[in-house]
Amino acid sequence: MLKKISLGLILGTLLILFSTPQQVVRADQLESRATIKLHPESPTKPVDPVDPNNPDQEYPGDETDDGNQGTGTVASLSLDYVSNFHFQTETKQTNVTAPLTNQLAMVQVSDRRGTGAGWVLQLKPDALVGRATQAVLNHGELILGNLTLKAPSSNVSDRPQIITKKISLGAYNNVMRANNGQGLGTWVLGFPKNQQNPTKLILNNLNDAPADHYFGVLNWSLTDAPN
């Protein structure tokens, strides 16, 4: 028994002697900090529109929307391109459903801020007005259909979200939203034509509406704070 106790005391003493110098060395280790501040990019030229079907290629144009060259904005958060929507001519009835006739209708958003703060894209379709008669059509809705959302292959950001696909005339609705850390770089929202679920304009209560060529304004809004 005495030998076992003595052995235990010796080992304990050796462990203490070996551990003490290591503690002293660690106490002499200090930390300092390095800091750097990165400013958001200040663009000098607009983002060129790209093909909504293949965003690695430039936008080939849309013969239905001829002459639309994009917005030309150089903002860090920008709407680069917004199509003018053209809908199929319809015979007047009480209710009309008119599909989109554009070949490549799209909206292109670019976030070059580098902060990942997010954004929201909204749309309000105004009532339609007759070119000759000035008659107003304000009962209806825009059905966005089977939308596509793509980005160039170099974009590694998380995708924004498509929020709604049915928008009443005269009301703002969120179409896309990028939460914190989403939607950086360029994103192209494509509007379908001649598919199972195309983009279309539905007009109701047309009993008293005269035959005319009607037009309206699509109000797009891109804000820097997700709603």
From TrEMBL:
InterPro entries: WxL_dom (IPR027994). The keyword Signal applies. Residues 1-24 form the signal peptide. Pfam families: WxL. Residues 28-226 form the WxL domain. It comes from the Bacteria. The keyword Cell membrane does not apply. Keywords: Signal. Residues 35-72 are annotated as: Disordered. This is WxL domain-containing protein. It comes from Lapidilactobacillus gannanensis.
